[in-house]
């Protein structure tokens, strides 16, 4: 079974995010990129499927931030091949733009199933996976936390999350695109030494996305940091002093009897 | 500009979630200002009371999906296409749930409509539709202009007042055909209701919730100890569950449980919109987070910018003294 996995990098939220002077994008000089959490789950799910059914895992990303490092790490974890899309993404990598670039390049690669994270922390216009699936004419199910494949029947059974802790099992014809919310196990860890080893031997393919006009989706008028609404009364002091204030508050609310 | 509004009233089993009335309340305000026509798409079967509760709308389009299982993204998409063909919306309002998010994106891809996710506000102006989207884990607001219709907006629960949309009336019911997917590319085979919890979190007056900031499974032990002192239970944000540190029955948020305890204490939780959706209605919210700018402090009543691993033991000790003195 051939599996394609799309990985994307997103700004690390641990760092302070700054808005650039134009007010409509993040200031990239201060951005530190990390792999999108749900994409890492998509990779893990792909590796689990490969372990169960055999086949290949091909990982792809766009050439921004630390693309190569992310791909080497995926290869070290067990992916068979990796590639990156080279195009000018300086004016943003919106979901429809990404979907077009992926469709134009990577999807010429053989696949039975495509996995990607269900959403990323900067998906203003929705999940890339859904747009790509539509472009390829294959089914899409997002928010999935379990996939099993019946290759002979050409079907996958996915477990989709619904609100309130409910699930639905959905049978999907292959090839299909699946948006992963959580893999069946936490993403595996790979030691730096193995990534270094991989780096020395691995090859990363490059796909040049054609300069087609990409869909414009709307216009960002402004970006703002969420101002603290001031609703939280901040309690200061050393842990002991804070704890005493918390006890008083809990007492006021009749939690302690 | 076309100001017709179509509201997708998602429900998976019985009852109509509050977010649907939130959307209707906002739709009603827009209709007053712009003379919009409002339709609701409701997965049936629907009772008369349910239809009447959509008094803010002009009509309710009822579509019956296979009651034995549950709607699939493509099945629901078909119904949204049918409803849109009938009502020609300029604005399609959907709750930001895990099902509606799939449907919204597929609809946008099919029709070229513009989609904005995680909306917390929107408006109709003469330039088009403006929407405010909460991004980057709740840290950044992005204001967007969509200058063509229809615009599809996925809206976060809690953005608007539910009571504004709770208006009884006599919208006309219209039956839509059940979706038939010609090639059966996708079929729901089983609906799995929420697993019965080991503790019924919805009944607990005090919840102590741990997030990724708790760092490892072992550290949850002292929070458990604190919970037993406060007659509460421990619950968590998604990463803690995904790591397998606590069972799925303890997850709070969009794909977990919605809770309304008297007290909710959040330890090392950033306050991403998907988590906040599940706990924002707690009577008293206390957040402990090392990052003073964490979005959780925007919904908390009291905040402590400190290491949870220092605060929890101190709180246990302070409670010891209370117990000894009473
Ligand atoms: C479709 C979908 C559905 C989702 N459903 C849910 C859901 O139901 N529930 C849910 O919770 N999430 C859900 N999420 C995930 C959500 O987007 C966030 O990723 C998640 O809520 C973040 O969890 P967190 O706050 O524990 O972790 P993080 O965002 O990583 O935050 C950790 C916080 O801990 C703080 N911290 C670190 N160390 C300490 C310390 N020692 N003491 C105190 N504070 C510390 C940090 O400052 C940070 O703010 C969903 C996402 C998607 C895409």
Model description:
- The complex is a heterodimer of chains A (257) and B (326).
- Chain A contains six helices and 13 strands.
- With 257 residues, chain A is of the alpha/beta class.
- In chain A, helix 2 (67-77) links the parallel strand 4 (56-62) and strand 5.
- The model of chain A has no long low-confidence stretch (mean pLDDT 91).
- In chain B, helix 3 (73-87) packs across helix 4 (98-111) and helix 5 packs parallel to helix 8 (308-325).
- Bound molecules: flavin-adenine dinucleotide (FAD).
TL;DR?
The complex is a heterodimer of chains A (257) and B (326). Chain A has 257 residues and is an alpha/beta fold.
Mean pLDDT of chain A: 91
Sheet/helix structural class of chain B: alpha/beta
Helix fraction bin of chain B: 25-40%
Give the number of helices of chain B. Answer: 8
The count of DSSP E runs of length 2 or more, i.e. the number of strands of chain B, is 15
Task: Note the topology.
The complex is a heterodimer of chains A (257) and B (326).
Chain A: E1 2-6, E2 9-11, E3 33-35, H1 37-53, E4 56-62, H2 67-77, E5 81-86, H3 95-104, E6 113-117, H4 128-136, E7 140-150, E8 155-162, E9 166-173, E10 176-180, H5 192-201, E11 204-208, E12 219-225, E13 233-234, H6 239-252
Parallel strand pairs in A: 1-4, 1-6, 4-5, 5-11, 6-10, 7-10
Antiparallel strand pairs in A: 2-3, 7-8, 8-9
Helix pairs in contact in A: 2-5, 3-4
Chain B: E1 5-8, H1 18-34, E2 38-44, H2 48-52, E3 59-64, H3 73-87, E4 91-95, H4 98-111, E5 114-125, E6 128-135, E7 140-146, E8 151-155, E9 172-176, E10 186-192, E11 206-210, H5 220-229, E12 233-236, H6 238-242, E13 263-267, H7 273-279, E14 284-288, E15 302-304, H8 308-325
Parallel strand pairs in B: 1-2, 1-4, 2-3, 3-9, 4-8, 5-8, 11-12, 11-13, 13-14, 14-15
Antiparallel strand pairs in B: 5-6, 6-7
Helix pairs in contact in B: 3-4, 5-8
The structure holds flavin-adenine dinucleotide (FAD).
């Amino acid at each position: 079974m051939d599996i394609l996995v799309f990985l994307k990098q997103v700004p690390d939220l641990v760092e302070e995010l700054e808005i650039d002077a134009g007010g409509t994008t993040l200031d990239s000089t201060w951005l530190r990129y990390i792999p999108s959490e749900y994409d890492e789950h998509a990779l893990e799910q792909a590796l689990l499927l490969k372990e169960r059914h055999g086949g290949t895992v091909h990982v792809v990303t766009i050439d921004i931030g630390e693309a190569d490092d992310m791909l080497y790490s995926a290869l070290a974890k067990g992916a068979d091949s990796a590639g990156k899309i080279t195009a000018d993404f300086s004016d943003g990598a919106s979901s429809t733009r990404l979907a077009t670039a992926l469709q134009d390049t990577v999807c010429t690669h053989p696949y039975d199933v495509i996995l990607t994270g269900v959403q990323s922390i900067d998906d203003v216009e929705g999940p890339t996976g859904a747009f790509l699936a539509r472009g390829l004419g294959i089914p899409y199910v997002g928010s999935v936390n379990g996939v099993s494949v019946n290759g002979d029947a050409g079907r996958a059974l996915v477990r989709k999350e619904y609100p309130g802790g409910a699930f639905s099992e959905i049978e999907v014809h292959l090839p299909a695109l699946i948006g992963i919310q959580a893999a069946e196990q936490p993403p595996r860890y790979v030691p730096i030494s193995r990534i270094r080893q991989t780096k020395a031997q691995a090859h990363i393919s490059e796909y040049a996305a054609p300069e087609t006009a990409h869909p414009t989706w709307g216009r960002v008028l402004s970006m703002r940091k969420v101002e603290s609404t001031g609703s939280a009364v901040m309690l200061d002091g050393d842990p002991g002093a804070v704890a005493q204030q918390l006890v008083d508050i809990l007492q006021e609310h009749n939690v302690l009897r | 500009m076309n100001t017709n509004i179509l509201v997708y009233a998602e429900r998976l089993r019985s009852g109509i979630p509050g977010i649907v009335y939130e959307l209707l309340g906002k739709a009603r305000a827009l209709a007053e200002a712009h003379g919009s026509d409002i339709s609701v798409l409701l997965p049936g079967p629907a009772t008369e009371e349910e239809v009447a509760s959509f008094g803010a709308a002009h009509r309710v389009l009822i579509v019956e999906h296979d009651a034995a299982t549950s709607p699939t993204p493509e099945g629901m998409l078909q119904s949204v296409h049918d409803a849109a063909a009938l009502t020609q919306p300029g604005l399609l309002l959907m709750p930001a749930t895990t099902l509606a998010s799939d449907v919204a994106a597929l609809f946008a891809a099919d029709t070229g409509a513009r989609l904005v996710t995680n909306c917390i506000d929107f408006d109709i102006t003469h330039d088009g539709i403006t929407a405010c989207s909460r991004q980057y884990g709740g840290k950044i607001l992005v204001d967007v202009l969509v200058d063509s219709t229809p615009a599809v907006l996925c809206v976060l629960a809690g953005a608007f007042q539910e009571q504004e949309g709770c208006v009884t009336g006599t919208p006309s019911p219209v039956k839509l055909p059940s979706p038939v997917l010609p090639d059966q590319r996708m079929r729901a085979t089983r609906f799995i209701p929420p697993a019965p919890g080991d503790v019924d979190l919805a009944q607990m007056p005090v919840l102590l919730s741990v997030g990724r900031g708790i760092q490892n499974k072992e550290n949850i032990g002292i929070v458990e100890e604190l919970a037993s002192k406060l007659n509460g239970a421990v619950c968590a944000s998604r990463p803690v569950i995904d790591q397998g540190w606590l069972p799925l029955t303890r997850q709070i948020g969009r794909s977990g449980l919605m809770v309304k305890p008297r007290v909710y204490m959040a330890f090392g939780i950033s306050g991403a919109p998907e988590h906040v959706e599940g706990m924002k209605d707690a009577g008293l919210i206390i957040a402990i987070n090392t990052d003073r700018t964490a979005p959780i402090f925007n919904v908390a009543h009291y905040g402590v910018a400190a290491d949870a691993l220092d605060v929890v033991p101190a709180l246990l000790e302070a409670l010891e003294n209370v117990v000894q003195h009473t």
